[in-house]
């Protein structure tokens, strides 16, 4: 580097001793190059795509290194401390994810992190962070702090003697940070850009939603078609591949299986994403990849039903009020909100609130938002549902060579959460049946979950997407009264469907008509037409084709 710097004209030459400043060079290399370099191990990004990021980071390192030669030792310590503070969170997050998942986080996943509450963060760390990953992140944070402390007093260059070089470095630094094609290759700059874009978008959406509420939009309810109670239950992280109702060899659905004849069990439903936030935004609104503007141009679910003469209720065991998520504004449009998440109890806590809500004789839409099978799975059910134990009940899927005892225990915990969810949904149906009124329930999971099903991985992430993460259950129950009044509805359980279109299906069940309703996108309409299905930006068929199922053949597969 010293040879390169000494190629300047004589009046711009700077005497930078690499021997004296080697700790500075190590520090800058550490915080600017470590994450881009380790990203080469990422399984979701080709190495060729990462090379520009590494080159840009090297250029930024040189510029900052030269600029620091104009600072005193105390000035360098302050400047490098600020730089460390700016890179610490993005670097720790990206590095931690690289170490345990071997993928580089995408913009969408980074946005999801901004909307994650404290409790979910704790459970994520509990579920994923092993000692080695924790040690790696701790060392990543500690090492540069020690370097700053160890920096010795050294001579510095005077700006007035090298003003052209100084000005050139300031200009280059500005260009690195201001030019988006360049800045997007600097990992911590891009991290904060995503955060800023997310905050701006959320504020604009909240403003647009308030404006949307002041505009007229006619919704007509056909009284002869409308149920007294329509209940939408939103599950969490439940893969249909771990449901005995769909052929899983463990008996995870004893209660729902017992009442199978009264249920409509849809076998080919796919979520539009593999993260909760984009899925719920899709379910609650008319927005789709072709028409993102429909997010605020048309009413969202609660507004639509409010205008259709329904009393609307949200009963949530999933936190949403302490974090300004990008779907919170849509949830808050319910007439009545019951937030049970602060109790930190399993989903059974919603049953009492639901029973009280059902006492209201008004025509109503109720949404139950569950924690379901969210990580960490062991927190999702009471101890009385600690049913599965691989040591007592071994089965074929436990013989996979990559499974450790810890992984087998996690599979047990996940299956226990599925079995508890079975109890909960059966209990909800019992409450509806007791009302002896025209009612219907739709249950689906926001997305699926991969639980060591074919490789050494658990969880859901778009960077390592698999069919297990997007193939979800969708179950419909109807009272006898509702079945009799809605004989025109069609229930073909093999229809290929995306839960992105659920708002059309709910409108159909509720007897609502309005401008923009499209019966071809209702799962229950006679005119239903199969539409292309996407999971994020990927066609579902490509996700399914690239998926390798190395699991044993399941019994009684539907």
Concise description?
The chain is α/β, with parallel strands linked by helices and 558 residues long. The protein is 45% helix and 11% strand.
Write the layout of secondary structure elements.
Layout: H1 2-5, H2 22-38, H3 47-68, H4 73-101, H5 107-114, H6 118-128, H7 131-150, H8 163-178, H9 180-183, H10 187-213, E1 219-221, E2 229-235, H11 254-258, E3 263-270, H12 276-284, H13 294-297, H14 301-307, E4 311-316, H15 328-331, E5 336-339, H16 350-358, E6 364-369, H17 405-435, E7 439-445, E8 450-451, E9 458-459, E10 471-478, H18 480-485, E11 497-498, H19 502-510, E12 512-514, E13 534-535, E14 538-539, H20 540-546
Parallel strand pairs: 2-6, 2-7, 3-11, 4-5, 4-6
Antiparallel strand pairs: 1-12, 3-10, 7-10, 8-9, 13-14
Helix pairs in contact: 2-3, 2-4, 2-7, 3-8, 4-7, 4-10, 5-10, 16-17
Task: Walk me through this protein's architecture.
The protein is α/β, with parallel strands linked by helices and 558 residues long. The protein has helices at 2-5, 22-38, 47-68, 73-101, 107-114, 118-128, 131-150, 163-178, 180-183, 187-213, 254-258, 276-284, 294-297, 301-307, 328-331, 350-358, 405-435, 480-485, 502-510, 540-546, and strands at 219-221, 229-235, 263-270, 311-316, 336-339, 364-369, 439-445, 450-451, 458-459, 471-478, 497-498, 512-514, 534-535, 538-539. It has an eight-stranded mixed β-sheet, with helices on both faces. It has a two-stranded antiparallel ribbon with strand order 1-12. Helix 4 packs antiparallel against helix 7 (131-150) and helix 5 crosses helix 10 (187-213). It is elongated, with a radius of gyration of 28 Å.
